[in-house]
Amino acid sequence: xxxxxxxxxxxxxxxxxxxxxxxxxxxxxxxxxxxxxxxxxxxxxxxxxxxxxxxxxxxxxxxxxxxxxxxxxxxxxxxxxxxxxxxxxxxxxxxxxxxxxxxxxxxxxxxxxxxxxxxxxxxxxxxxxxxxxxxxxxxxxxxxxxxxxxxxxxxxxxxxxxxxxxxxxxxxxxxxxxxxxxxxxxxxxxxxxxxxxxxxxxxxxxxxxxxxxxxxxxxxxxxxxxxxxxxxxxxxxxxxxxxxxxxxxxxxxxxxxxxxxxxxxxxxxxxxxxxxxxxxxxxxxxxxxxxxxxxxxxxxxxxxxxxxxxxxxxxxxxxxxxxxxxxxxxxxxxxxxxxxxxxxxxxxxxxxxxxxxxxxxxxxxxxxxxxxxxxxxxxxxxxxxxxxxxxxxxxxxxxxxxxxxxxxxxxxxxxxxxxxxxxxxxxxxxxxxxxxxxxxxxxxxxxxxxxxxxxxxxxxxxxxxxxxxxxxxxxxxxxxxxxxxxxxxxxxxxxxxxxxxxxxxxxxxxxxxxxxxxxxxxxxxxxxxxxxxxxxxxxx
Amino acid sequence: xxxxxxxxxxxxxxxxxxxxxxxxxxxxxxxxxxxxxxxxxxxxxxxxxxxxxxxxxxxxxxxxxxxxxxxxxxxxxxxxxxxxxxxxxxxxxxxxxxxxxxxxxxxxxxxxxxxxxxxxxxxxxxxxxxxxxxxxxxxxxxxxxxxxxxxxxxxxxxxxxxxxxxxxxxxxxxxxxxxxxxxxxxxxxxxxxxxxxxxxxxxxxxxxxxxxxxxxxxxxxxxxxxxxxxxxxxxxxxxxxxxxxxxxxxxxxxxxxxxxxxxxxxxxxxxxxxxxxxxxxxxxxxxxxxxxxxxxxxxxxxxxxxxxxxxxxxxxxxxxxxxxxxxxxxxxxxxxxxxxxxxxxxxxxxxx
Amino acid sequence: xxxxxxxxxxxxxxxxxxxxxxxxxxxxxxxxxxxxxxxxxxxxxxxxxxxxxxxxxxxxxxxxxxxxxxxxxxxxxxxxxxxxxxxxxxxxxxxxxxxxxxxxxxxxxxxxxxxxxxxxxxxxxxxxxxxxxxxxxxxxxxxxxxxxxxxxxxxxxxxxxxxxxxxxxxxxxxxxxxxxxxxxxxxxxxxxxxxxxxxxxxxxxxxxxxxxxxxxxxxxxxxxxxxxxxxxxxxxxxxxxxxxxxxxxxxxxxxxxxxxxxxxxxxxxxxxxxxxxxxxxxxxxxxxxxxxxxxxxxxxxxxxxxxxxxxxxxxxxxxxxxxxxxxxxxxxxxxxxxxxxxxxxxxxxxxxxxxxxxxxxxxxxxxxxxxxxxxxxxxxxxxxxxxxxxxxxxxxxxxxxxxxxxxxxxxxxxxxxxxxxxxxxxxxxxxxxxxxxxxxxxxxxxxxxxxxxxxxxxxxxxxxxxxxxxxxxxxxxxxxxxxxxxxxxxxxxxxxxxxxxxxxxxxxxxxxxxxxxxxxxxxxxxxxxxxxxxxxxxxxxxxxxxxxxxxxxxxxxxxxxxxxxxxxxxxxxxxxxxxxxxxxxxxxxxxxxx
Lengths: 540, 352, 594
Description:
The complex is a heterotrimer. Chain A has 19 helices and 21 strands.
């Protein structure tokens, strides 16, 4: 997030796009609701599904899954043609405007309407609301990123924010909501194939030098490594011999599960380090019992870049050990001494190697959270980014053309499947589905079907149906609801017994390598046609 | 905001004109008792415990509701105020169960604390008492309106903070009580089970079922930590008793949630103690994963890593780190990959 | 009044008249007149004030002479019309006659000073033309066309009128606050949520002269800068609501409401919001919450509605009676209004006379009258010649004053000094058959039931007071109960959130003050001297009077009365449940309570 969670309450307009905020990020949802309820903030929700946030919205744009670029270009076309852009901001702080403008000019609201299914006048109204607000914030989540055009989508949002001068000030910004407690931190820490901590490129020799020196090694590789999806492809091809997985459950969370299971089967040696024998761990050759969040010291960095403490409250069960100890043990068996791996000491090491974490220390964290960038011990932290200027000089407008999703519905698979979260469950369900009370609240998976589609298919509320894509099929209960539009079905991905990701399309965004979870072509089968479909990833 | 000077109980203080008397007092270390006030909500002015005397004002004013003005002179503990507070507490207690022995909230009850502080026993105003059915119509939240003092905090937090509005008062006068429209069970209401109502209830009227009977406030150790679920980063207090997490709360006005949580943050902790937790390393032997010692497991893994490093080379090894693990663990894993194994094949599910 | 050479019949057609049978009378009159036999026509009007003689018809001859007839029935209509045709007067039915205004019940009217009620009973409330014919809407036209808002506020300020809803805050000052408050939108609200038991001033005005209220609102809206107004009227007043609807529609047609009213560029409109009859919604902030669609519960003040009212915007709230007086004040001048009344209480006040008073009805008197004048000269004293015992002023928020205070002036401060309040104008007269403890208990049961439940002192405190009073009436009072009542009352008054709780103890406090002996009788001596509280009375039959007719034994539900025919009967006190059925049935009045 460029701005803080609290800062959303300062916004005069919020565009929530591709984020079911009240369920995916409930506490951010509270801020948005309060901004609307208390301070008359105008909320625009752009979302194919009717989500709870729609109840608070001044305008709900039900665009087709995967048509975000068209919708946003349409809005920006209106802003430009009506002269609502922030000329000074564009002139002083941005570049690439001309090229960008040329592309956007092609997207009249009428043309955008045709692609995204939102009335041209509604696009105009949303554009005006956003552009005329004193401060307008953009909030997005996986509904924007999990597309083959994920990067394009994000760039379009950045374009919109720059076009209206909504960066570097209160109540504004481009605010991605990170789906997991420490996605931000894992990225910050260099758990990415191309960067060290603090996004320092592995390709930069000077950076490598510094790390080599600090880590006391002769050589660090300078070629970017494989992304998760590439690793799986590599495993398929036999390039990956050992796969070491710490605290992840790709068998449920990754797209095209069948493909992934084959990959895991092909890996020579699979190590999984987790707190449960997850669906993934069942494929492992060695499983390390790890400590849960309550059993160790450490820090998480949340979605608005706030570094906060994790504290040990109880002992791990049995012989389970925290991940740091396990990693250090492996290292030492590979003849590398990681030294003291207690969390405060490791943080000191991180701070010494990571400019944006330079001022982070456990002593300071006792006083409260620190929001990075925090370069030194005296720095107060940075709740709002890009205040005077962009971190990387000028803001670059990117001309972005609409591209359709990789797989569009056709005669054979006539429905669009989109996936997402429910409030009560979390990610692959490893944790929440082991909480009896939560599982009682929402005990089973359901596919949401629009009443018109349901009628055509002869599907009734509560009936068992199968959803099938080119990659797999699952059986589950139907929920007939207008919350999904005609031609669209929704399946949450928390349920191992009917995993949405057996259906999803592993097609990747060419840059970010994010799979297209939000659009896949599927069909619904009922009665006898379901025969033979039995999904069985062992449930928790 | 305008700076102003005022006097509370003889103490000159400086504050700003947007403050209420209660806030100004609190910020200056002066305590004015209150029951219906809570920082997460707009002031309400119902319990009348925080009434104070303001020089020149007609009648007594609720400190929670009255904004300060320059030169204001406030008295918070005159004989009349103390008498009224006692009467109010006595009146509340006259329609309140005296079962503090078994009440879930003992030790964590604002009514109990005030009754204790003001030395109030209920004897002067006995009369009719309410006896409602205890409502446990869902797995998480139990409501016992015998203990309700009608401060409206549950109603207001649900409406003002959660933006949902599950409850409102029903009936009038002495029979007023919070309720869900048409007395529907909670499961059929729009309730999101965030438990914000539980967190603000000043008595034992709304409690969390999973933590019932599991520990008094002084029997638990509270450990401040960060929620392990989504990216919001809400601050949690884990209530630990005898090595078990028995409840989760969130410190008010601290962190992104300011004391508010969602259903996962507040009630999603028992997985930690689930019987499925891995307690020993497992090694695949003869196609089966069987328990093994750490030494054997670590050796096996190191051996295979070494073999791959020496064989096809470091890039035949890949590491998946975790958005669920701490910064330090992520750091160490990528260090393991890069410095020890020698590969940049490290990623995590940021994209998923 | 011109009658076009015909005889004009005006039927009192307010709720009081209809309740007494005016609908049937109307039907009979219409069908008789339809025969064409009589040279007369029929019109309706609101309540004339003579509620105690409804249904009422005022007959105005072509020469202007008029006679008001009361106690009409459909059966009596032909007889009335025959007499008219014959030029005769049916003396027995006369309530008032213009050629001898003080005769009969005439002094009920001639002792009044009617400003607010100037049109009530005189014009057809469903006809805007009749209102305009009295000079109606001239004041609004004058204000909008030739006065600044400040001038209008000054004029009202000069009149000295104080809010007639009960609190008596100077109206001009209140308008000034709302005028000065900053806000892009301001609201005006007419508080027509009349809730005191036995009070019906507002209803009568709305039913009898809705246009005067609307005109008052137009002026007030202009003065404070509000373009949108609400009338908050209880749904239990269907006739008032209907007449308001008719009046508002007529105003739209005439260009008195809507865009650019009276040919100016000023917009002003009125919406009606029906209340569900919660007493507490008469309180400003609860009323606002109710209009906003929330549960009607008050909030502390400040901030006052003048700064933060409806939807958080500056809002001015005035009572019906106040607003109805405004056109008169503008038309005749604030100084004219101020010439009536006392030093600090100007103008007139409308009272609803109820209870044991002989002439129950609606009366408007100048401030400065004594209570004695109101109750005896206007109200005709106590019914059945019984002795005056007390008057409850200001409904459940008010107090009970004894005979010794009958010379108290109708004046805000004078009445407040007694422990009662002017209130909205309810006056309930009690005679020797009224138990003052029971009366206090009744009023407290009302406030307790109507408490919104928000604050502790009102919700639980009044409940405990009620329980104490109930047990005193049941003969189970304890010696400490009077002190308990006083302690509770003091803390409830000081501690309650709104005026409902803040005034709820008043009936108890004033009866404790002025009728303490009755409490002592109940608690210490086990007696209810008024013979009201069942647990404390014994019913007896006077043997010397009883004729042994057996009527009492027949009605007794528990067969407690026995006796030989034609012999004096007796009541078995152990079986008797003191329902008093026998007492009311005895033709000889031989049964008494002690």
